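Let us practice reading a record.
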Amino acid sequence: MTPTAGPESDQKGDTDAAPWWRTVLRHDVPASLVVFLVAVPLSLGIALASGAPIAAGLIAAVVGGVVAGAVGGSPLQVSGPAAGLTVVMAETINQFGWAVTCAITLAAGLLQVLFGLSRVARAALAISPAIVHGMLAGIGITIVLGQLHVILGGDSNSSAIDNVTQLPGQLMDLHGPATFLGLLTLGILLVWGKLPSAVRKVPAPLAAIVLVTVLAVVTGSSAERVELPGNVLDLQFMPQLPEAAWMEFAVAVLTIALIASIESLLSAVAVDKMHTGKRANFDRELIGQGFGNMTSGALGGLPITGVIVRSSTNMSAGAKTRASAILHGVWVLLFTALLAVLIESIPLAALAGLLVHVGAKLVNVAHIREVRKHGDLSLYVVTVVGVVTIDLLTGVLIGIGLSLVLMLSRTMWSGVHAEHDGDGYRIVVEGVLTFLSVPRLSAVLNGLPEGSTVRLELVVDYLDHASFDCLHTWQEAHERSGGTVLVDEVGHPWFRRGKDGSPIVRRDRAGVAVPRFLAPWSEWMARDGHVPQSANAAEADASSTQTADAAQKNGHHPGAELGAGNGGGAGEVAIPGQRTGPLHRGTSEFQNRTAPLVRDTMSKLAAGQHPHTLFITCADARIVPNVITTSGPGDMFTVRNVGNLVPPHDTQASDGASVWSSVEFAVSVLGVSEIVVCGHSSCGAMRAVVGEAPAGLTALADWLEHGTPSLRRSRENAPVLLGGEEPAHPDDALALHSVHQQLEHLRQSPLVASAIERGQLSLSGMYFDVGNAQVYLLDPASGNFEPAGVQDVVQTP
């Protein structure tokens, strides 16, 4: 029986069935040993770079494994002292001393616990990745500049600028043994990844430190070594509150808490991407990191964070549960207690070489490329420069400040484009139009010649009062000078509502505007105030012409009312002699907006057509084949008739010739690979077949006789299901049977049957529920129709 207690299994697979202890023994114990071997040298090196006691790095490694590993919300993440905090810790220790620094670490941990309890963990992820990567790169550069001095046998300075200026003098005064050991460590780390896989099973940091330490011991090198206290396990309560400078103390606490939290959360996100098991609980992870830092600070250790180097090593070594992270801390404790003499044999230059390698890897070229691709390179560079030349907190704050400025500029940006349009001008304004864009907008508009015809296209997500006033004032002035302004608003009618005096020029009250390529003419033109919902094209022409004539008789220029009736559509006032019916306005819309986008595609199709599908559907105006199939020009050869009917192939009726001539042309000449028959809901033809055709329409009645086989099929066969249910209306039920019947008529054609037999053609059934905008596909196995998007496209044999 599988125990119910013990470390949870966070990975799928064999851990689901195996007892937890077997999973720990098989996967987590070996992984913990590998992580332990990586953690020891890194912890020593980070303590060295921070200017803290060497033992502080080991204490932090133990606490990070045992406490944060047991409490945290990212089970496979491994915590410990992190390179990302070395610069901050060096400055803090230099300012406050070690005892007060321990108190700062403890207080930062308490603050992290409060962060976790308040459930704000995900808010830390709102910081731009460019700032985070820039911060890490700045830390890496600072570490490299400082530890180069140690490799060369000197001492690291707290200032990166001082490290740079003093580096030439350090190069002139080399300390032979230390320099040799440091460079040898760096060389081993660089070539280790190119060695055979059997050798690479030993972690590179461990191999480099062990080899260089053995060499130093064998040769009796005089290079400076690690120093540990006489009794490493003699732990005391270290924190001590400062006697003054409480504001600086609070800033240091907040800085360490924020950096440690962000680095831990980012590491947890990265770990989540490396496995398919249980996702991290970010709030719990912050609580775990907080308890870890409180414990580490109390015992005299460095601050801890989730460390991606150790965590990725843990994953690569096959860890399955949090037991691996906990055990790695136990191994560090045992190693420190029992083999302290080995630690004291390690040359400081070797640890410096390890840190130079770690710091250089923090400057990730792949991250730079990614940041540059997203247009945030300036953010990255500013953060790096700030961290290196000033300090980490200031550099990050500068980066955050710049990110806010960039966000504001991008949010408030609007593109203003001007171009000649025949005898007039076309001005396109895109984005968010606010007071920030008024200077440029005014410059473009005021530069237009007096008396010219201007088409102003507003493709804006928001328009504030300042920009509305700019447009309105310019429009009135331009029209007084004899010019014409045609305003075309695409989307929400900000400008029109402003001219109407409506107080709804607010983004939070903006309605949803249907794209014009989906909305019927009657809808987007009615929003313009030009065409009533029920008006037909002739009424629209007459109404528009009368409006224009009346305006001229009154001595009022038609453009003066511009925008007053402008909604989500074109918003243009008719000019005498210009056709303004829906069809003509639709073609104008195509030429102005769509034609430039599809011209390249159409030019490729000019030489001939090569459609892949013959699409047979109803002539119903609500069915738009290219919309419901997301296809474009050249994709489908379409046949439309009342009721999407295919007369029997052997029929003698002449009215079937149109359908079959199209089928023959599509199959024999165009070589389509698929024929689709598409029915739909609320079909008037099916309603007429179930009942009777409207009186006096003899041609329609004759044509609908081809629906009789479908009616007979519906009465003789079981109901066809639509999404698992029978349609509520008889005409919809008949439409489903009709699709089956038309496909059967197609199979009776020798031409179609032969193409199917050769594997060159397939038949598919489709049904469109108009009211729900849902496409259904015929499942040949069951004979029923299933919703598209739930299953793949199915074809009848």
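A brief commentary: The chain has 31 helices and twelve strands.
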